[in-house]
Amino acid sequence: MQRARFSKHAKLLNAADFDRVFEKSVRSSDPYFTVLARPNDLEHPRLGMAISKRRVKFSVGRNRLKRLVRENFRLSQQNYNADYVVMAGNKGAIASNQELKESLGRHWGLLKKKCADF
What we know:
This protein is α+β, with helices and mostly antiparallel strands. The protein has helices at residues 15-23, 59-75, 97-116; strands at 26-29, 33-39, 46-50, 82-88. 26% of the residues are buried.
């Protein structure tokens, strides 16, 4: 059985990559997440996360959100070749897994359209 992994080339790894997205990006927001996206010149999308203690108090909740976001991003084949930064919203920590997955699906679809027009 082959293991499905979230590979290193699919991650935003340094501060310059994050700054590039924060500097100029398109945004999608709801009570669970705020997702920023900016098209990149690579042949694949990349993901970065900024899940703060201010939004999600306990590490168990932050780690749960990160796992869900990574898995949803990895399984989502519709992502545009862009750099994405996901930040937790006010209700992210108390939402069910199903609500979070639906929210992320809406964000990926909306940002794909917005990035195409960027």
